[in-house]
Amino acid sequence: MLMQLRPLAPPPKAAAFKNRSFLDRLGYAVAGITIVFSRERSFRTQSAFAAGVLVVGALLPIGPLWAALAALCVGMVLALEMINASLEYLMDLLHPEVAEEIKHAKDAAAGAVLIASCATVAVGLLMLVAWLQLS
Hints:
This protein is mostly helical. It is built from 5 helices and no strands.
């Protein structure tokens, strides 16, 4: 006989965080960015590079398409850094001892950030080449 599966109800504490106002959710997001910025050197480094991209974009007349592409790339790298950090926090909490599969998961998340960073560098170089050709 097959068992009938019932969806699990969220614990009461977790349910209290659902359906909050937009401002509450925005506050949680800002708190997350603040925590990652304060804890993660790589996020601070990537943020400094993002600021550099903004300065270069403001100084060079790169055009709206290049500016949008640069913003998208920078946003992708920073978002992946946040995801990488959140996965590390969760894995460290749930499985604090060293485990091979946890190491692989952390390495894979870091690899995703590296791939996005390399793509961003490539876009930046192509942008500079296009700007130099127009100058």
